[in-house]
């Protein structure tokens, strides 16, 4: 009598294990599959002079818009997951009108009108940024010593990772950034499924790493953001963020960043919603930061960082 009961228990256990593995593999595939959102905003809608360009990246061609600078400074704009370069059009229109900033807005691989089919949460997206920077070097009118980077969500992770490798990026502005990808995936999984992060989140990250060839569990912007100093970092933390774990993520990023650093904690604002909620204040704060640390900073700071 004992043997049949044991066999049934083992069979049920096997079914549970297979179900957990199958579910985790499915979630990992979904995690790596970006959605292509249509362009909602275009430069011409806001009277921005723009050149539609295509940039050769390591994962295919990247679709981009180049907006010429009036003050000698260019901003590389990195959008969030499942979004596109149009996410930055309104902000750039106002930053250019106020202080003359130019921009290179582009779609990450797998997003918008760029080639590719996978998101890697900043790892290979940092290679996209490197390709964009190389493109800017080819433009005679771009002062490569006056280039900054701005990022939302996925773009925030990417901005930090890219800037650790590209000292030419003279300052960084991020919003709704993750401090530790594995920890944030675990928190999101519990929040939206009610299931424990172990073993599910652990297995999802494991399968995600196998499928992507990227060490997702090692994507920890808070551990590397300190390498950016003496370049300046502005961290925008949306306190009603339902995706990034705020205020913890913002606090952790700020605590680990070197000087100069700025933290703006935005009340009553959800994920990447500070500009939507407080557009005038967003422009004023971000532009003040850029004026001080990009347009107004001595060029030799960039070269010193490169030599380090």
**CATH homologous superfamily assignment:** Alpha/Beta hydrolase fold, catalytic domain
Number of helices: 11
Question: Care to count the β-strands?
Answer: 8
Radius of gyration: 21 Å
How helix-rich are the residues, as a percent range? 40-55%
Task: Walk me through what this model shows.
With 308 residues, this protein is of the alpha/beta class. The protein has a single domain (40-180, 219-307), classed as 3-Layer(aba) Sandwich (Rossmann fold), CATH 3.40.50.1820. It is built from eleven helices and eight strands. It has helices at 2-31, 89-99, 125-137, 154-165, 181-193, 197-212, 221-224, 248-256, 274-277, 279-295, 300-307, and strands at residues 51-57, 60-67, 74-78, 102-106, 147-152, 169-175, 232-238, 261-266.
